[in-house]
Amino acid sequence: MTYLEQAIKDKFVYIDEKQDLLIYQPQGKERRLSNPEERVQLQTYLNLIYEYGYPPEHLRVCEKIQIGSSTREGDILIYLDDRGLDPWIIVECKKEGVSDSIFEMAIDQGFSYAAATDAQFVWATSGDRDAVFQVIPSKINEREKNRLDRIPTYKQIKKPGSAITRRLGRWFRAPVTSDTILFSVVLLAAMFAASWLAVTFDVELRTLTGLFWQQHGMDYSWVFNGLVAISTVFSIGIGFAFMRSHQLFGNSIARKRLIYFLICLILFLPTLFIAHSMSNPNWWSRPFFNSRDYPILVYLWPYSKSFPLQFFALYSLIWLSSRRTKE
Description:
- The protein is of the alpha+beta class.
- It contains twelve helices and nine strands.
């Protein structure tokens, strides 16, 4: 029994040759059977079920894919779930005997769909030849080092906890996330360095600002706010000099001024709020500072409490910036 005969028996496809009708089940997608490209797509659909073991509920034929402001249609999209929430493989089909240039276009089209959906594999096929690739998000144009002999079977990827791991992996590999993490590391390093210097030269700092301590009720919250401001400006300077590929520093000059202003607000306001909401009313006093075995924690502990807020705000800003760039 052929795959097609088995699929008809299993009610995975319905064929009416008189009406030139082909229906993929359970999706219910109707296609023209006489289309040469559709013949290749049908055979690929059957191979995915009977050779690779993918459940029909995980397959979508002629699936709509949003790329920017336009909507395209992928030939076959394989999901890791039956609700279509976890894209896995993009399949692009061409009729047999197509030219090399058209086949290469199918590969590039598959990669563009993979970039839009976060799918991890691309399979271009014309029935008489195949090209399979693993998608490397950071090298979306790679076509040699990521070439595979065939796509993974359903059994090879159906492992406990693997879906969560893949989703987390995609999130960490996303440019928005990597940019946020990178800039956050720079911020943390700058704040730690500034705090260490403030503790090391505390006597000199208090001598320099003695008038404020005596006449204006200055305490260590003033120093803390100053350290946050200094580390913010320093981090932006580092970004401007060495992080040109970073989303925050790759915009036009006019947009940079606005973005830098927003960065300063995002980084300063949460720390200012935390500084004035410490549960210990003596936290910023000189006796409390002098009594600490590790006085640097007087600065770093409040900062660690505000850091999650900063991270989320930075992530949102970079995401909005990347959305506007695409538009």
